[in-house]
Amino acid sequence: MMDYKLLQALAAVVEQGGFERAALTLGLSQSAVSQRIKLLESRVGAPVLLRRSPPVPTLAGQRLLNHMQQVRLLERDLLQDVPMGEQGAGQTRLRIALNADSLATWWAAAVAPLCEEQGLLLDLLTDDQDVGLRRMRSGEVAGCVCATPTPVAGARALKLGDMRYLAVARSDLLATYFPPGWKAPAWGQAPAIVFGSDDQLQHRFLANCGYQGEFPYHLCPSSEGFVRMLCAGIGWGMVPALQIIQELEQGLLREILPGQGVDVPLYWHYWRNGGRLLEQLTQQLASSAPGLLGKGQASAFPS
């Protein structure tokens, strides 16, 4: 039988990014947390953590974390059905990974009703939409929004819709680098803005335009900062249509190639045995996300 105090220590170390912060969260000494991890490894017969900064779960550790995630959610259901004294189910915190652009646009409106109704607390981790699934695989989160359709073992995937990205820039930058009659090599001169090293949207867009070469770029790992840099004329970039409806309507930003955007599919991944709360969140996203994402499609090319 598993000792859940040991699993709780493992989850705390991974979620808090280290032994010291895990000890503060659990109200233990750092030495006590370390001893629990060593005892867990002794019982499992294999390492559960790679002692890096931050610590990374091994394959065995990932399976234990996945199990712990599901136990927490199922325990909530049990406390609702069979209240133990005055303890009750209380508030539940879900760790969710999603791309920063979803967080900056449709996510809050989609989940707000459930958070209010169920007293749900969210611990949100941001990753690029192409790599967010690694959080599920490592057992760090109960669900994630990403662009990958294939779920990890023990999970399901549900398509929420497509997020429309537009290549935009400020008018003066367009006039400088993309004057009338400009040709494909201009992409190699105009500075772009890229969200991070995993962001391939610009590359995908340029490939669709027939350009395969290098291009100068700024790195800006912030959705809000990304739009501010675009509006300041620092560079061009791929940004969700949902996020710049007002800037397009006011003429502050303009599409470089009107009508040529990139649609990124978004999928919700969640554990099969995640309990009622995770199922309720899934139903909430299934009913609300498609309509919210569709507003980006409708507003992509305002008159």
Automatic annotation (TrEMBL):
Pfam families in the cross-refs: HTH_1, LysR_substrate
SUPFAM superfamilies reported for this sequence: Periplasmic binding protein-like II (SSF53850), Winged helix' DNA-binding domain (SSF46785)
Coiled coil ranges: none
All residue ranges annotated as the HTH lysR-type domain in the record: 2-58
Database matches in PROSITE patterns: HTH_LYSR
GO molecular function, one term: DNA binding
Keywords linked to the UniProt accession: DNA-binding, Transcription, Transcription regulation
InterPro entries for the chain: ArgP, LTTR, LysR_HTH_N, LysR_subst-bd, WH-like_DNA-bd_sf, WH_DNA-bd_sf
UniProt similarity note: Belongs to the LysR transcriptional regulatory family.
NCBIfam families: argP (TIGR03298), PRK03635.1 (NF002964), PRK13348.1 (NF009888)
Protein name stated in the entry: LysR family transcriptional regulator ArgP
Phylogenetic placement of the source organism: Bacteria, Pseudomonadati, Pseudomonadota, Gammaproteobacteria, Pseudomonadales
